[in-house]
Specification:
Helix 9 (202-235) packs antiparallel against helix 15 (331-344). Among the domains are: 27-109 and 155-178, no CATH class; 179-304, no CATH class; 359-391. It has helices spanning 3-8, 15-34, 36-61, 66-97, 103-124, 130-133, 145-178, 180-192, 202-235, 240-249, 256-272, 275-301, 309-323, 325-329, 331-344, 349-355, 360-378, 383-390. It is globular. The protein has 391 residues and is an all-alpha fold. The chain is 80% helix and 0% strand.
Length: 391
């Protein structure tokens, strides 16, 4: 066998390399799981910084100092979130105040559901063992006043902890935007030390992808929230200025967000009017979701991430399992960032192809480079001629 044929034969990695890869992967997953109190706010802050960077640059070009521009944008965002929370709380109080009007319809619905469940239990009665057919025993639990007080303080502490946890995101975002050149230089220095990356601008590629995705997703959310609010207003459905923004925010959760946004609107329409109105609302939401998935998102977000649908579903399950709801929200941007890194690391291009569609110009360039290197190794005398042919 010649040297050229030996070069063409693929070599499988030794068992030691496979074992080290498995151990490293397990260590990374463990770090992500146990380090989520620190990593989740950093990930949210990074995503928010990528989304806000074009607006900060726009204000800077208009003559506004960077610190003032960042503070102004963060003030608008935090104020909008606070206004939404206050609005949702007020609407919930209004709903509970109007709940007696819906009691008859709620009792009717619950009765129908219970009848259906009882019929299922009767049909399953002959299959289940005797112990499973026995009624549920009533257990009375009494707690002391001390335990109730302690539970209140525990709940209060958890609420304050959550608020402080969420408040760290704007502060991290501020410093990431303020000192973004320093962070870029540090990250670029770390990446350029890796020989497998060559001269690839990984940080720039990630920043461009994340910024485009965040901006596109933000516009889609605003459009969906506005259209849904107007549609509910036209149908005269109560709480439309809460249900509409919820429909926009639900886009952050792939697949599950559709259910989360549709069920409350259908339930409100049913309790407020009747089943026909609820069916109409369901049809309107289905039409809007169809437009969002087939028109708005492909047109505005487009090929910013290029992830396969199966990849998105697996990423949603993986990040949701490790980080909970924050992980489910960040599943797509995190996975797309991993795909960008794999596209630029020599030898990891196959993993990038597994995650989604490749960046065609980039992959063609890398593919030609690999072919040229392989040809130069197999035929060193023809390498100059090959390079001249390419030019």
């Amino acid at each position: 066998m010649t040297a050229a044929n030996e070069a063409e034969v693929p070599h499988s990695p030794p068992p030691r390399v496979v074992g080290l890869t498995a151990i490293s992967t397990a260590a990374v997953v463990g770090l992500l799981y146990y380090g989520r109190p620190l990593l989740v706010p950093i990930a949210f802050a990074l995503f928010l910084a990528f989304a806000l960077r074009p607006f900060v640059s726009l204000l800077e070009r208009a003559g506004v100092p960077r610190v003032l521009a960042i503070l102004l944008i963060l003030f608008v965002i935090v104020g909008g979130v606070a206004l939404l929370v206050i609005n949702v709380t007020a609407q919930l109080n209004q709903f509970f105040a109007a709940l007696p009007r819906y009691q008859a319809r709620i009792r009717e619905t619950v009765s129908q559901v219970m009848d259906f469940v009882n019929r299922i239990r009767e049909r399953m009665g002959s299959i289940l063992p005797e112990d499973s057919r026995a009624g549920v025993r009533e257990v009375k639990v009494t707690g002391s006043q001390l335990e109730a007080t302690r539970a209140v303080f525990i709940q209060l502490g958890e609420t304050l902890g959550t608020l402080l946890y969420a408040a760290s995101v704007p502060f991290l975002t501020f410093f990431m935007l303020k000192d973004r050149e320093k962070f870029n230089r540090v990250l670029a220095g770390i990446f350029t030390r890796n020989e497998r990356l060559g001269e690839s601008d990984v940080t720039g590629a990630i920043a461009r992808t994340m910024t485009a995705y965040a901006l596109g997703l933000g516009f889609v959310m605003l459009i969906m929230a506005a259209i849904t609010t107007l549609a509910l207003m036209a149908l005269r459905i109560d709480y439309y200025y809460v249900l509409g923004p919820v429909a926009g925010l639900a886009i952050l959760l792939p697949y599950v967000g559709v259910i989360i946004s549709t069920l409350p609107a259908v339930a409100v329409a049913y309790f407020q009017y009747d089943g026909e109105k609820a069916l109409l609302v369901f049809l309107v939401y289905s039409l809007l979701q169809f437009l969002e998935g087939n028109v708005l998102t492909p047109f505005i977000v487009g090929g910013k991430v290029r992830l396969f649908p199966l990849t998105v579903m697996i990423a949603f399950i993986f990040w949701g399992t490790i980080w909970g709801i924050p992980g489910a929200v960040l599943a797509v941007p995190l996975t797309s960032a991993i795909k960008v890194v794999c596209e630029h690391v020599r030898g990891w291009e196959g993993l990038a192809r597994l995650l989604g569609e490749p960046d065609l110009p980039h992959f063609r360039k890398r593919h030609h480079e690999h072919l040229a290197e392989a040809h130069a190794e197999a035929h060193p005398d023809d390498a100059p001629l090959h390079a001249a042919d390419e030019t």
